[in-house]
């Protein structure tokens, strides 16, 4: 599609969401985008409030450090991060789906939303964020990716992080989503919530020294 037409469609959608918020129920939007791209979205519905809160509780961030969220969807985790005290201007979210990215921009006007591919993250984020993220949260299903793709993703994530930064990966599988040793990660912990369907797991890693 021509960039001009694409931009026009994005703006029209953003305007429609702004004028008629009912059009933009996050659950409905998430489900629609799942039907359009099941292998990319990989979840029928957004994370529950409880799961978002559990993820937010695992975030570490010192003053001036950023939190980066990859695969923000319709903002279920973004909302929890802000409620937990992460300032909007220290939060950067990345989403590959144009309609979801437009929705995020309307829902969180003070948050930097990047419509882009998490696998090319280092090229997509502004230079002032490189090496400044205290925590990176990954909502993309990574467990089933080949090791080369996992390595590519982790290399990009690592370039964003402060030394000793934290990587949080969440998903439905009850086993570690990343092979820590092969990716030079240190597994720090796991938590789960029953207040999500299916059960929501939160895996926490640090980059091994
Ligand atoms: C399982 S959903 C999680 C959505 C949201 N974080 C939540 O918990 O409700 C995964 C999200 O990652 C996005 N995604 C998938 N691959 C991506 C990629 N390569 N780069 C950026 N976002 C991606 C999908 O479009 C989808 O919104």
Rg from C-alpha positions? 16 Å
Global shape: globular
Question: What is the quaternary state of this protein?
Answer: single chain
CATH architecture: 3-Layer(aba) Sandwich
- Count every helix, treating DSSP H or I runs of 4 or more residues as helices: 8
**Measured distance between first and last alpha carbons:** 45 Å
- Taken in chain order, the helices and strands follow as HHHHEHEHEHEHEEE
Q: Overall mean pLDDT score?
A: 93
Small molecules bound in the structure, each named once: S-adenosylmethionine
Number of domains: 1
Please give a structural write-up.
There is one protein chain. By secondary structure, the chain is of the alpha/beta class. It has a single domain (47-207), classed as Rossmann fold (3-Layer(aba) Sandwich), CATH 3.40.50. It has 8 helices and 7 strands; from the N terminus they run H-H-H-H-E-H-E-H-E-H-E-H-E-E-E. It has helices at 3-19, 26-36, 38-41, 49-57, 76-83, 98-107, 121-124, 147-160; strands at residues 66-70, 91-95, 112-115, 133-138, 161-171, 185-193, 200-207. It has a 7-stranded mixed beta sheet. Strand 1 (66-70), helix 5 (76-83) and strand 2 (91-95) form a beta-alpha-beta unit. The longest helix is centred in the first third of the chain and has 17 residues, at 3-19. The chain is globular, with a radius of gyration of 16 Å.
């Amino acid at each position: 599609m021509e960039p001009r037409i694409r931009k026009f469609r994005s703006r029209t959608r953003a305007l429609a969401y702004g004028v008629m918020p009912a059009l933009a129920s996050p659950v409905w939007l998430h489900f629609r985008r799942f039907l359009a791209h099941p292998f990319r979205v990989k979840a029928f519905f957004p994370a529950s409030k409880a799961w978002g809160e559990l993820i937010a509780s695992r975030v570490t961030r010192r003053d001036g450090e950023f939190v980066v969220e990859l695969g923000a969807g319709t903002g279920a985790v973004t909302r929890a991060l802000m409620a937990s005290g992460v300032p909007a201007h220290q939060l950067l979210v990345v989403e590959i789906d144009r309609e979801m990215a437009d929705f995020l921009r309307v829902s969180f006007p003070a948050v930097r939303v990047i419509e882009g591919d998490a696998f090319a993250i280092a090229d997509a984020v502004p230079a002032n964020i490189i090496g400044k993220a205290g925590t990176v949260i990954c909502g993309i299903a990574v467990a089933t990716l080949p090791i080369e793709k996992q390595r590519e993703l982790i290399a990009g994530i690592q370039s964003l992080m402060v030394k000793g930064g934290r990587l949080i990966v969440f998903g439905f599988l009850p086993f570690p989503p990343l092979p820590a040793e092969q990716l030079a990660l240190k597994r720090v912990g796991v938590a789960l919530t029953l207040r999500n369907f299916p059960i929501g797991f939160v895996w926490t890693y640090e980059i091994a020294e």
